Amino acid sequence: MPVHHARRAPYVCASCIRRLHHVAPRITRTYATSGPKTAISAAAERSPRPSLRAPARAVHLRRNEYSTSTRKPLRLAIIGSGPAGFYTAQRLMRQVKDAVVDMYEKLPVPYGLVRFGVAPDHPEVKNCQDSFEEVAASTRFNYIGNVEVGKTLALADMKPHYDAILFAYGASEDRKLSIPGEDLPGVYSAREFVGWYNGHPQFSHLKPELDKGERAVIVGQGNVALDVARILVAPLNQLRKTDIAEHAVAALSRSKIKRVEVVGRRGPLQASFTVKEVRELMQFPKVGFKSTGLRSFYPPEGIHTLPRVQKRLAMVLQQGAPIDKHDHKKRWELSFLRSPHAIHAKKNRLNQVIGNRVDSIEFQKTNFVPDANPFSEDAKVHPTGEMVTTEASMVFRSIGYKSTPLPGLSDLGVPFDEKLGIIPNDVHGRIISPSAGPGNLSAGHLPGLYAVGWVKRGPTGVIVNTMMDAFTTADIIAQDWSTNVPFLNTEKGSDASTGLGWDGVKDTVLAQGVIPVDWEAWKRIDKAERERGKQVGKVRWKFADTEQMKAAAGLASSWNPQKMKATAGLA
Amino acid sequence: MHSFARNRRRFSSTPISQHNHLDPPKPGEERHVTFITKEGESFTFEVADGDNLLDIAQENDLEMEGACGGSCACSTCHVIVESEDMYNKMEEPDDDENDMLDLAFGLQETSRLGCQVKMSKELDGLVVRLPSMTRNLQASDFESK
């Protein structure tokens, strides 16, 4: 076995170069491996990245001068700048050494759910942004923020200029309960509430009514439900130092919510929240926990007979919160076997509606179906007909996110599965359509079209799931590229793509008066957010408004289309 | 909040300048650790006491992501200790580490998070395997959701 010494000379920090250079997995011989990185080439790759220009064009022209058989560099558009898009870009740019990636984002600011989904009191989860910054620092990466594909820019207009388009736009809606009273004031989707406390521009004006009563009911038992519960009961002095929106701190300081009930259709062994999130809720000072009849859901032989993950979760639930029952100021509760039936406004004794906002939520009790194993994760339940009503001054629905079709998908022949809420794909990430199959009998791959993240596999999983999913998609794109299968503009075996990427479409965008945000502009927003955060004792004070973001980027004055063209030409 | 205390790198705007360089081992205190990659290749490194497996892997360009920057908040630096004896020499994983291991792909009896395993005299000669992810991705991520 060869012994490599941890130090090499001349020494260049491996962390600086590790993401730019990796030994590629041997999927095929064509793009496998290069030797150890030298200090010189590492330094070259770290050269500062110019703004939105297209080095690919220069490269491909030069290449074509020498050989017609050499392919142009892979030009990929990624739609969405969340972790799925970034991890795919990272892996693909390592695998395909000359691939150039244009990442489109409809907001001025990047990172998707890492910025707007991950709870503010989980800052360590956001450390993946460090990796994404290194991806964005590459000269082969262009960030194009504030450009909404499907609205500002049509997919059909992008197609001629790219070899591949990767859909990484996630899940922009949430699943509804579809019960009466769901639209009453005081009923919120967890998605909009999460967006609100995380400073998402779309939800910054939500004004949730936290001061109308003491009881909040959250329908659904995933980690988003527990995030909402945690924000409602957590000590505010812990939250205010995080990057939580200042409007949320102000509203939470007036909150009267004392009891938060998290309700699920099935039992604790079927709940999809994870043990870390439960444990956190058990560790706040002065926050109690209650769940009646927990023991009845566990095997009579004891919880030690459960599989590891369920067992550890059951132990934390059984243990509960360490504080005395009467010593708590706030309490969170878990209720099981309840299916939401209706949400009601206040009624008088004659059963006439006298309120204009939520007052209670009515559940139908459920039971495990007769042939179900109640200890199994996928045990099913059915309604019993017995009703139970819970007082509620706020109701949150948290039963999952949902992807929607991007406008113009059909122009590229991309189908959308409304039932699963995903773009149909072959599990690896190749988008498939029945119309592309041989003789239309089976589904075939639509050349050059790929999906990743929640729009590919549905809205579940933590960062590790998304990362591995992204690596799978990146590997498959790299494999397709190396095996010369048809891509987006392959006609009769030859590539008809212009290879221009963003340069081919930016005039269309600029003509509409839309100002794209490039990576340098985002870094200015980033810096401004940190600086104003420091002044109020927060790690970051996000701009919760797109106009503020653009102003912080100084874009209105500095963006000059003529200058950009000149830069691109020089490249 | 307990999660704050162990956080070493957060919200870094300058990742390239802010990382921890590993110091070379003192003479006579060289420890050896071997990583077996997904492809089955072995790489042995000479490292110092106190170095954690995530830092060692990243310093040597092995494919280990460490999405949370080594703060025990994800399971992307999951490794499997080859020898049970060696596993038993380590301190037991704490609750936070086990919570994250619960979410890891291909969890084994001797699974650990690389960021939580620090090299020491007792662990000299440690061999760990990087889990193969593609197989596990399909098994656990696409079934009956």
UniProtKB/TrEMBL annotation, chain A:
Residues 75-232 form the FAD/NAD(P)-binding domain. One of its GO terms (molecular function) is oxidoreductase activity. NADP(+) binds at residues 221-224, 265-266, 277, 461. FAD binds at residues 84, 105, 113, 149, 454, 461-463. Its main location: mitochondrion. It is an enzyme of class 1 (oxidoreductase). GO terms for cellular component: mitochondrion. InterPro entries: FAD/NAD-bd_sf, FAD/NAD-binding_dom, Ferredox_Rdtase, Ferredox_Rdtase_adrenod. Its cofactor is FAD. It holds the Pfam family Pyr_redox_2. Residues 39-53 have a biased composition (Low complexity). Residues 34-53 are annotated as: Disordered. Keywords: FAD, Flavoprotein, Mitochondrion, NADP, Oxidoreductase. Transmembrane segments: none annotated. Its EC number is 1.18.1.6. It catalyses: 2 reduced [adrenodoxin] + NADP(+) + H(+) = 2 oxidized [adrenodoxin] + NADPH. It comes from the Eukaryota. Belongs to the ferredoxin--NADP reductase type 1 family. This is NADPH:adrenodoxin oxidoreductase, mitochondrial. The lineage of its organism: Eukaryota, Fungi, Dikarya, Ascomycota, Pezizomycotina. The gene is ARH1.
TrEMBL record, chain B:
Residues 20-30 have a biased composition (Basic and acidic residues). Pfam families: Fer2. Its cofactor is [2Fe-2S] cluster. Residues 1-11 have a biased composition (Basic residues). Residues 1-30 are annotated as: Disordered. Residues 31-134 form the 2Fe-2S ferredoxin-type domain. GO terms for biological process: P450-containing electron transport chain. The keyword Metal-binding applies. GO terms for cellular component: mitochondrion. PROSITE patterns: 2FE2S_FER_2, ADX. GO terms for molecular function: 2 iron, 2 sulfur cluster binding; electron transfer activity; metal ion binding. Keywords: 2Fe-2S, Iron, Iron-sulfur, Metal-binding. InterPro entries: 2Fe-2S_ferredoxin-like_sf, 2Fe-2S_ferredoxin-type, Adrenodoxin-like, Adrenodoxin_Fe-S_BS, Beta-grasp_dom_sf. Belongs to the adrenodoxin/putidaredoxin family. This is Mitochondrial matrix iron-sulfur protein. The lineage of its organism: Eukaryota, Fungi, Dikarya, Ascomycota, Pezizomycotina.
